[in-house]
UniProtKB/TrEMBL annotation:
Sorted UniProt keywords: Aminoacyl-tRNA synthetase, ATP-binding, Cytoplasm, Ligase, Nucleotide-binding, Protein biosynthesis
Motif segment ('HIGH' region): 125-135
Domain (DALR anticodon binding): residue spans on this chain: 478-593
E.C. designation(s): 6.1.1.19
Protein name (record): Arginine--tRNA ligase
Record-linked InterPro entries: aa-tRNA-synth_I_CS (IPR001412), Arg-tRNA-ligase (IPR001278), Arg-tRNA-synth_N (IPR005148), Arg-tRNA-synth_N_sf (IPR036695), ArgRS_core (IPR035684), DALR_anticod-bd (IPR008909), Rossmann-like_a/b/a_fold (IPR014729), tRNAsynth_Ia_anticodon-bd (IPR009080)
Species name: Streptomyces desertarenae
Highest taxon of source: Bacteria
Designated gene of the protein: argS
Length: 593
């Protein structure tokens, strides 16, 4: 496995060297090399530099050009405009660097030089409740970030901080104690994973509704439910047993949704709120002793200068309620101590709805004051809201939150229709099973891609028509580009892809080649800023350039053997780059579509 220096990086280095030779007093100045439409690259760093040194930018640019030695990479270089340096790279250099990438399993992408340990908190649904679009975002974004970081060699520890604790369980457990058969399977035959997940959820819904009715109408039951919470928190074995039944039922449902979403969630990474129960007293003790938290009207609170309510009064983070109960904040604080102290994390990520930004700001600051969290080590990857077509938070017509399973089901159904129609048009003979499998890969890919291709902090409209469209910035478009390449490679038969640096390239080939050259740098930037949408944009750019190449440059009918092989080589590297990039986003690339 060898990492490959991109052509862009090589050219950058050459220009930087020429700049420091031309201007020794600015030895470390950045020539600011960018891709450009005029030439392949343009360096415009000479403008600011000349201004700073009170020189003439065109003269400086000319000096830099004069200092550039002849090289294999640079075919043409000239001063342009007010003092830009325009650079055209050699066709052979493009093909040679790409060949080095193709020879490497990792496509020449290096590992991070100094990887650390990241704990990422994502996909944290709530026990006994349905998963909704908010959980979709957390799951899809978290899964992509995990894959992107792991690919760079970061040690990633996943945490699914599920909502499995709190007073609401008193009601459910008490009801189940009194009606032990409420969760029974009623003899229904075990069906597919999806069906048993649905069945588990409907049993939980039934339990939830029945216990709610009793809780709201029967004062004595209400009291028994409250007493049950105390038993739960003090670790009463029988109560825990019943609680585990409820959690287990929910896990069946969660796993069915994860299967449908094609996301791996491992049981050992599901460490819910309950897991920190035993640490909460210690959290309180340390916060109180250090003075980070103070008692206020009986509750244990942390105050912040810059957090005030509309009335101007400070709004504290409540670690312990006046009745002694612990809330969401206490669990998050205990989790930070565990993640930094025991798991050795140097970075903590939280893929959580932007509407919880204030909570995390206060929790992080509290943990920092308490000495549990180094400054700047924690970060919320805050995501925006999923909107309906009306631009308002996505709801059903009845105004209820949309069930994730329904959404995914509809996406797969739509995608299956697209796949079937396209197969019929293209004369592709797919079995019903193949159509169903591809429909799922296309439909789920469409949902994930629509989510990941917009910057995560932004809201986006859930629009299935657009998501499964064959044209435009969609995963379907990328998947078809990939499948089309596979079909060409199959048709090529014994003619194998081979790089031919001696050939002259067409403009569409150069554009495709220079884009392929940017893969490693793109991944590095995406990992450093936690911005999967930049990877999506890169892949869309790649598929678009491929489409242009495909339209302008015949592959199998190119004529001479060397050109056919070289074009097959570009096809193959494009496909491998697409597949790798899509895999990092959690999206499948079917070989035939
Ligand atoms: N269970 C919460 C919800 O559904 C999200 C939990 C986020 N993670 C955390 N560590 N607080 O909104």
């Amino acid at each position: 496995m060898a990492s490959v220096t991109s052509l862009a990086a090589t050219v950058h280095q050459r220009v930087a060297d020429a700049l420091s030779a031309a201007l020794p007093e600015a030895a470390s100045a950045d020539p600011l090399l960018r891709r450009s439409d005029r030439a392949d690259f343009q360096a415009n760093g000479m403008l600011a530099l000349a201004k700073k040194l009170k020189g003439n930018p065109r003269e400086l640019a000319a000096k830099v050009v004069g200092e550039l030695p002849e090289s294999e990479e640079i075919a043409q270089i000239e001063v342009s405009g007010p003092g830009f340096v325009n650079i055209t790279v050699a066709d052979g250099a493009i093909v040679r660097t790409l060949a080095a990438r193709a020879a490497d399993e990792r496509l020449g992408v290096p590992y991070a030089e100094d990887p650390g340990t990241t704990v990422i908190d994502y996909s944290q649904p709530n026990v006994a409740k349905e998963m909704h679009v908010g959980h979709l975002r957390s799951t899809v974004i978290g899964d992509a970030v995990v894959k992107i970081l792991e690919h760079r060699g970061e040690k990633v520890i996943r945490r699914h901080h599920i909502g499995d604790w709190g007073t609401q369980f008193g009601m459910l457990i008490q009801y189940l104690e009194e009606h032990p058969h409420e969760l029974d399977h009623g003899g229904d035959a075990p069906g597919t994973a999806g069906e048993s997940g649905e069945a588990a959820m409907s049993r939980l819904n039934r339990l939830y509704k029945a216990s709610r009715v009793l809780f709201d109408s029967d004062e004595e039951f209400k009291q028994r439910a409250r007493d049950r919470v105390v038993l739960l928190q003090s670790g009463d074995e029988r109560t825990l047993e019943t609680w585990r039944r409820i959690v287990g039922e929910s896990m069946i449902y969660f796993h069915a949704v994860y299967d449908q979403l094609d996301v791996e969630v491992r049981d050992e990474d599901v460490v819910g709120e309950s897991a920190y129960n035993d640490d909460l007293q210690q959290v309180v003790k340390e916060l109180e002793e250090s003075g980070v938290a103070v008692r206020s009207e009986g509750a244990l609170c942390v105050f912040f200068d810059d957090v005030k309510g509309p009335d101007g009064k400070p709004v504290p983070l409540i670690v312990q309620k006046s009745n002694g109960g612990f809330g969401y904040a206490a669990t998050d604080l205990a989790a930070i101590r565990d993640r930094v102290g025991r798991l050795g994390a140097d970075t903590l990520l939280y893929v959580v709805d932007a509407r919880q930004a204030l909570h995390f700001k206060m929790v992080f600051e509290t943990a920092r004051r308490a000495g549990w969290l180094p400054e700047g080590a924690a970060r919320q990857l805050a995501f925006g809201t999923v909107l309906g077509r009306d631009g308002k938070p996505f709801k059903t017509r009845e105004g209820e939150t949309v069930r994730l399973v329904d959404l995914l089901g509809e996406a797969v159904e739509r995608a299956t229709a697209v796949v079937r129609e396209k197969a019929e048009q293209g004369g592709l003979d797919l079995t019903a099973e193949e159509i169903a499998e591809r429909g799922a890969q296309v439909g789920i890919g469409a949902v994930k891609y629509a989510d990941l291709s917009t910057s995560m902090s932004r809201d986006y409209v859930f629009d299935l028509d657009r998501m499964v469209s064959l044209n435009g910035d969609t995963s379907v478009y990328l998947q078809y580009a990939y499948a089309r390449i596979q079909s060409i490679l199959r048709k090529a038969g014994d003619t194998r892809p081979a790089a031919h640096p001696e050939l002259r390239l067409e403009p569409a080939e150069r554009a495709l080649g220079l884009h392929l050259d940017e893969f490693a740098e793109t991944l590095e930037a995406v990992a450093e800023t936690y911005e999967p949408h930049k990877l999506a944009a890169y892949l869309y750019g790649l598929a678009s350039r491929y489409t242009a190449f495909y339209d302008q440059c015949p592959v199998l009918k190119a004529g001479d053997a060397a050109t056919v092989e070289n074009r097959l080589f570009l096809c193959d590297l494009t496909a491998r780059t697409l597949r790798q990039g899509m895999a990092l986003l959690g999206i499948r690339t079917p070989e035939r579509l």
